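Reply to dn_fold:

You asked what the input looked like. This is it:
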Amino acid sequence: MCRENAAKIRFVEPSISQRFATNLAKQRRAAGLSQEELAFRAAVHRTQVSLLERGDRLPRFETLIKIAGALEVSVDTLAEGIVWEPIVSVSGGLKIAAD
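and this is what came back:
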């Protein structure tokens, strides 16, 4: 796979990734953990936590479960404000919920 295609695959809707990043950072700080401590508890690499908190990536399902468990919060807490709207028109898809 060429780099151009790989970059397209990794693209994440900025508002979704930023919302997740904000939720993750908030929960990590509330738990009193550094990124390194969270990574150790979740059995993921520290750079993965950093990428997630910067909004550069969204986690795979397994990583999401590990991080939620390490923080002792629900997956719902980390996904707070991110909703799915059924695609019944052009406007469906993942969106940030209205506050």
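The chain is about 60% helix and 10% strand.
Hope that clears it up.
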